[in-house]
Design a protein that fits this description.
L-arginine/glycine Amidinotransferase, Chain A, 3-stranded mixed β-sheet, 11 helices, 16 strands, globular
Amino acid sequence: MTKIPAEWAPHKAIWTGWPSAAELWGEDLEPARAEVAAMIRALADGGKGDRVRVLAHGREAEATAKLALGQSAEVIPGAFGDIWFRDTGPIFTNDGRALGFKFNGWGGKYQLAHDDEVGARIALLAKAEYKLNDFILEGGAIEMDGEGTLLTTRQCLLNPNRNPHWTEEGAEAALKKALGIEKVLWLDEGLMNDHTDGHIDNLVRFVAPGRVVCSAPADRDDPNHDVLEEIALELSAMRDAQGRKLEVIRVPSVGAVTDEDDDVIPASHMNFIIGNSTVVVPIYSGTGDDAVKVIGELFPERKVIGLSSNAILTGGGSFHCITQQEPA
């Protein structure tokens, strides 16, 4: 039976991309590369952690990646639009297959050449059987516990800019068939100004069977105050596929992070990536010690490291958004 192992299960590899398109990143290209390199080194953990496999698009990107990463990662030439491999890459199963999904640039907002090829390309490089499912789905829109439970948001999965005819029932049937899950837990909406239309990996993460983390507002002026409080209340009333009532742990929110136009952008400590020996937590503008401490207590067997993700965030996401784990 097809199952998707939890992110904390052992990995054969973690896949990510090297920021390659100068026209997309502009003045943030080099800072973003520095942040991606720091994440990769943390995941590799001096050879004790993950095998990190990095796609680089173009000769300049390939050369700069090799120079920056050294022995920390394997750099592989390959075309892609941008580095958001959680959404464009495949989802690997417990039996060595790679599941692909249609991709339309987060509802038609950012459609780049080669992004719709990433799933098949990574599957080929991983020597995994590739299966393309006939509906649109981004990996960041779903969060799974490895034991049959999937969390998502109505704002994203039922958005008419993805699969316009989906109802809750239709979406659940498609997800159960494709991913081998047993129960879908629905939240309503995500962070303010999130171009992904409410991806769950900015909101709630499983950290163990029956246990989730979500953000607590930084203060009453937190732009996501009401949404974050509603999420925690809804989660506390939910049971997973095994009948367990969810244990809900709150992590201090980033609070208001704005861009150069003073618009709120969707910064979140929830966008961490769980590696074999490390957990890499995004932090912004010097904040994050409290969040790293809480998350650290949840992973006593791993090193929990807070790293800057300010430059990566200018592209629209963070560490979880740019990675995809391949189970061992």
